[in-house]
Design brief:
Blueprint lengths: L1 H18 L27 E5 L4 H4 L7 H5 L5 E11 L5 E11 L8 H5 L5 E3 L15 E2 L1 H4 E3 H7 L1 H46 L1
Bound molecules: iron/sulfur cluster (2 copies).
Length: 204
């Protein structure tokens, strides 16, 4: 019965209203913005770009591959590659973004950009209090304002950030092993070539 549901809801509201003067657990709202409920670790709103170390420009993980730009459903990411490369965390030369903008007034917080990024460069922030008077400039976030440190990432999403660090460490170890195997193969080939040469000259 519709009326019964409404009555039950009204009784619950009345209990909370009266009870809030006596029992703290009945206080289901806070006086925002003076008071704020602490954000949960799983809270996610808009993306940010992660950087390692103290300098966001040298530590920015993004290699400007533009996958997130292509996959973003409302197309609110705009990237332009820089002409020069810089070494990534494995020492491989990679492009950087010259421009990396996100129009947060269009972003729907779907997190697809995070899921498709192969470089653990973009993650979801908990920040949501964005307001401005200029629709086009105030809500268009550039890479300077999107860049946030790995320490910040650990602060807001400790579990996920620790897992991400482990993934990157695994990649680093795999890269070291690959490079070592490559160097050993090269050294072996050189050794064999020298031996062949020595053999050829001894039979002359
Ligand atoms: S969260 Fe979704 S909408 Fe926002 S930038 Fe990422 S892919 Fe685009
Ligand atoms: S954030 Fe990730 S997916 Fe997007 S351009 Fe940078 S590296 Fe590529």
């Amino acid at each position: 019965m519709i009326g019964k549901g409404i009555a039950k809801g009204m009784v619950e509201t009345a209990r909370n209203l009266v009870g809030s003067f006596h029992e703290s657990e009945r206080m289901v709202t806070v006086e925002y913005p003076e008071q704020k409920i602490p954000a949960k670790e799983s809270a996610r709103n808009f993306p940010f770009l992660v950087y390692d170390g103290d300098d966001w420009q040298t530590g920015l993980r993004c290699v400007s591959c533009q996958i997130c730009e292509k996959e973003c459903p409302p197309q609110c990411i705009y990237i332009e590659k820089d002409s020069e490369k810089k070494p990534d965390f494995l020492g491989k030369p990679q492009f950087q973004p010259k421009i990396f903008d996100i129009d947060v007034s269009v972003c729907m917080g779907c997190q697809i950009c995070v899921e498709v990024c192969p470089f653990e460069s973009i993650r979801m922030d908990r920040e949501f209090e964005y307001a401005g008077t200029d629709r086009f400039n105030d809500m268009l976030f550039s890479k300077e304002s999107l860049a946030k440190s790995n320490s910040y990432y650990h602060q807001i999403h400790p579990t996920e950030a620790t897992e991400t660090d482990a993934i990157r460490e695994d990649k680093r170890q795999a890269h070291i092993l690959k490079e070592r195997a490559k160097a050993e193969k090269l050294a072996k080939a050189k050794q064999e070539a020298m031996e062949k040469k020595a053999e050829a000259s001894s039979t002359d």
